[in-house]
Amino acid sequence: MKGIAVNNLALRVLWVFDKRTTSGWTDIRQTTDVHTFYWIAGGEGTFVDEKGTNYRVRKGHLVYLKPGFHLHMSTDADNPLRIIMVLTEIGYLPYEQRVWGSVEPLAALPFLILRAFASEQAKVVDKIFQSLIDGWIPGEQGGTVRDQLKLLELIQFLHANPEEELKDRPAQEAYVQMKNYLETHHAANIKLSELAARYGISESYSRKMFLKQLQQTPKQYLQSIRVGHAKQLLVFTDMSMRDIAQACGYGDEFHFSKMFKSLTGTAPSVFRESRSRG
């Protein structure tokens, strides 16, 4: 999510409702001061925003409404809408250098108002919403950690599967597989050209995909993962520099120290010492 780290989102699920409309149903968005997701679980209809823009919605569509966004809704007479509605408050909680910031209300998530999904992706989204409906308990027990995790799962999924990538699903799938491999095999000796070939795309195209999704090349992303793991080992263990280098995929301590300093601006030993003092 460009400009926003999903891990830094703080949210509270306020309401989950399975709205089954009937012929002739119309309504307006009543609660406009929160973030709202509408999953179209069935039927067809028309949504109209405050500028008069029409959105035709049908089963498998997801509507995201930021706070302050006004909407008029109506259902088709012969195929009434079924809408799973999720209302939530979302804030941004900074966390840097092991220091918590203050939660600030999030004005909007960087999602389109209306999203359509391929069949397999629609199944994933539908499963998340069905789980929210099945587990929702109104009153004081509403908005539990379970609900928050499910909504975060949805936000992460939307972030990882931008709409434009549906036009190039094989390349998107190859990107996801490469990304997962780098995250789970960061300690291995990885040749990026061979990894791209394994998943059926060229090295140059994999570079393009990573830059588009993460603003990093595959090599840069791999280094960021390795250094991220190294930071944890430096802070929370007494492992030697040599052992940390090996555990994080570096051939030797010198190479590890060089890469760590290039990404963090400080040597591993200095980083460890500064955290132990803190």
Automatic annotation (TrEMBL):
UniProt keyword annotations, A-Z: DNA-binding, Transcription, Transcription regulation
GO molecular function: DNA-binding transcription factor activity; sequence-specific DNA binding
One Pfam family cited in the UniProt record for this chain: HTH_18
HTH araC/xylS-type domain mapped to chain residues: 176-274
Coiled coil region boundaries: none
Top-level division of the source organism's lineage: Bacteria
SUPFAM superfamilies documented for this protein: Homeodomain-like (SSF46689), Regulatory protein AraC (SSF51215)
Protein name: AraC family transcriptional regulator
Organism: Paenibacillus roseopurpureus
